[in-house]
Amino acid sequence: MVVKVLKPVTAGRRGMSIVQRFGVLTKIKPNKALTRGAKRQSGRNARGVITVQARGGGAKQRMRQVDLKQSKLGVPATIRSIEYDPKRSSYIALAIFLDGEKTYILAPHDLKVGDRIVYNPNTKVKPGNRLMLKNIPAGIPIHNIELQPGRGGQLVRSAGGAATITSFDKDKALVKMPSGEVRLVPKEAFASVGLLSNPDHSHISFGKAGRRRRMGHRPRVRGKAKNPVDHPHGGGEGGSPIGLKHPKTPTGKPTKGYKTRKKSRSTKHIVKPRGKRRRGR
Predict the structure, then answer these.
(1) Is residue 143 part of a domain?
(2) Across-strand partners of 94?
C-alpha cells in the first residue's frame, strides 16, 4: 500500500492523504449472506450510557461477518477477493472452501487473490494459514491470536498489527504484542500467520472535518467550556481554570496519567507490561 498526498486544489484537500488500495475491491457489493445491518452505538454501552465522547452520525455502513474462530480444520480454501471493510482498519478476504462454503477472514499483508490457505494444528507456515502456537517458529509475525483454545481470535486484529513468539515455557508461549507487552498464551491456542494488511493506515491525514464526520466522529468540546452540570471542569467566569487538583472525566473519574486498566483473570499472564520504561529515563 502507498500513501498518496492529494493536490491542494481546495482548502479541504490541502494536507489530505489517502491510501491507494492496489488489488483491493472497493466498488463491488460484499457477499450478501455474510453481511448484516450495523446498529450505530454512538459511543454508548449496553446500558445506553455514553462511555466514548464525540461519537454519532456518519454514513450508513453494513457489518461484514468476519470468521475470527476459523474452526474449519483440514479443508483448503481459495482466496476469491480482497475487500474493504468500513467497520475495521484492516482489509478482509473472501475465502471459498472446497465444499463451497464462503467466509470472510482478516487479510494478511502478503495475501493475494488465488492463494490457497488451510486451518490445521500443524501445517505450512505461510501468510493466511492458521495453526497452533506450538508449531509456529519464534520470530514469525502472527495475528488473530486466541487467549483460550477454541474461543476465537481476540488479540492483534487491527491494520498493520503483528505479534511474535519470543520463546516457549512448558505449556505456554511467550508472545510479544505490537504494544510491547509480553504475555503467556497456551501453546494449543491458534493464531494466523502474517502481518495484517493496510499497514499505512496510521499514516494518513484526514485533511478536513467533514471526512471525520462521515466516519461517525463529532466535534469534541473542552470540559472547561461546559456547564458544571455537564462536566466537572465546567463553570466559572471567562477562561477560568478547572478548579481541581487533578483533571477528571465527564463522569468524575481521574484522568490523564491515572491508570484505568482493570485487572482480570488474564492479567496474571502478563510477563512484561506495555510502556514500561527503564529507570533514569
Answers:
(1) yes
(2) 81, 104
177-200 b/e with 16+ CB inside 10 Å = b?
A: bbeebbbbbbbebbbbbbbbbbbb
Cell numbers placing 59: 454514513
| pLDDT, tens only, 175-201 | 999 999 999 999 999 999 999 999 999
What DSSP character marks residue 212? H
> Is 219 among the domain residues?
no
Assessment of whether the complete model's pTM goes beyond 0.85: yes
* Span 166-181, pLDDT tens digits: 999 889 999 999 999 9
Count up the domains in the chain and report the number. 2
